[in-house]
Amino acid sequence: MLTSIKALKQTLLDEFQIKGHWWIPETDNLVSGILFYKKDDITLELIGSLGELGKSISLDIIFGISDKGEKFTLINALNTNITVNMPGFQTDTYSVNSFLVGENIEKLDTIEFDYMIFDPTYFSKWIQKDLYSQEYFAEQEKITGIKAINFKEITLFNVLVKCIDTEVIESYKTDMTGNIYDNINWKYRGGIKIRPKERKNIEWFRETMYKVTSLYTLFIGYPTYLENVTFYLENGDSNKPNKKISYFFKQSIEKTKKKFHARDAIVTYSQISDSFGLIINNWFEKIDLLKDVNNMYQGDYYIDMYLNTRFLNAVQTLEIFHRSLFKGKAMDEKEYQKYSSELTDLLETKFPQEFSTVIKGKLNHGNEYSLSKRLRELVNSLTQESKTYLIGNSDKRGKFVQQLVDTRNYFTHFDLDGKSNVLEIEDELFYAIQRLKALCTLLLFKQIGIDETIALSNIKEHYGYSIEAAKDLLN
User: Fold this and answer.
1) DSSP string for 440-456
2) Pick from 433, 388, 384: nearest CA to 407
3) Kind of pairing, strands 112-113 and 166-179?
4) What is the pLDDT of residues 66-110, one digit of tens each?
């Protein structure tokens, strides 16, 4: 059975419960209850009511103080259940979106912080810092035991993201547990600090955190979750600790790796450390342009989909990628509109209405590149080595593009007429998706300044891409 503990000592991956008193800001109606936190669910159960008896309410903010003296701010609470057991006695249940620990804050948009620190899953293993050195006892030039373990002075990255005037800094904390008699456990946890030049509110920090986390997810090629999120407000006195407020929210954590190694990542920090500052700046400069592409690309990590849905998602991701980065128009738009207007006039005067309506509908998108041309341009934007490795020679690339077009059209309309290159076998779809995934990875990496040679080399060695098997089956 869960027991009440201090929330500030917990992580977003833990499950715990908090006993305390809860109330609406600017009221004195304190109600006893328990806050239950799980990774994907936050519930407040009250013995009593915050509002009128028998009336369901939704609250933007609920204040609380625990039996351990911690202050809570619950955010966006929806009253999901009311039980009236006897006249005048009621129990309420609220579904809570998120909460802050460390202060009662009534207006979230008015409080600003100096910096935040968050810990993404697997970060310490991805960053691969050599942390410890050992000293040994020796007798007659033979090691007989460990004399000391020392924590090394390590170099942390510090990148100024110019477009938002903010530093993205490597952070860490250490913790020692055990006793001096038989066991000492020294734990290191790496994280990321976001420090703007001027104080920012919670929403700004949240948005910036998710942009950084999304880039990190792109590096590791695996679902990323957050273990800790903490905001800090400096008090200007070096002898006193800064104000610390922890943030807890729901995460649908379904795909964590029990054992993560650096080799599981698509690209490791050591491979891109020399250009790390450039990469982060490129990411923030292009995040609005690449947002839709990246959301669809990374959505495949988090959401289980049928093969045909995954295939359509992969093709659409590349279609959006091309539309975002390339011209994508068959001719000058003004010239096209001129000819389109003339043709519309002709259709309305010379042809039946049914025929005219069909053709005018096609004119709305007639100046855009076809899917085939978009895919060809994306493939041809890569080096010859990348194109040959992923797909093969020009004939094989042409065939693959046609397979993608025919299969996309079939899954959209379920009509095989005139489509001789549809991929219907599950294995064909699977390996086509793997190839598209590798193609999109290379294109995204190129956009943010990761050397294509490094990216291609890693894809060749990574178990997440079955390129050789794709060649055998699809070509």
Assistant:
1) HHHHHHHHTT--HHHHH
2) 433
3) unpaired
4) 999 999 999 999 988 877 666 666 788 999 999 999 999 999 988
Name residue 170's amino acid: E
Angle of CA points 440, 442, 446, to nearest 5°: 115
Distance CA 423, CA 404 (A): 8
CA proximity to 372, closest of 421, 431, 413: 421
Which two structure tokens, joined as six digits, stand for 116?
């935040």
Q: How open is the CA angle 210-233-37, to the nearest 5 degrees?
A: 55
Q: Is 109 exposed, middle or buried (0-12, 13-18, 19+ CB in 10 A)?
A: exposed
Helices 371-380 and 307-325: crossing angle in degrees, nearest 10, is: 70
Say which residue the tokens 């090394």 belong to: 152
Residue 56's Cβ-side half-sphere holds a number of Cα atoms within 13 Å equal to 9
Q: Where are the alpha helices (DSSP H) in 86-130?
A: 123-127
- Cβ atoms of residues 101 and 68 within 8 Å: no
Q: How confident is the model over 225-281, as pLDDT tens digits?
A: 999 999 999 987 766 778 899 999 999 887 777 788 888 999 999 999 999 999 999
Is 31:53 a contact under the CB 8 Å cutoff? Answer: no
**Distance in angstroms between the alpha carbons of the first and the last residue of the chain:** 58
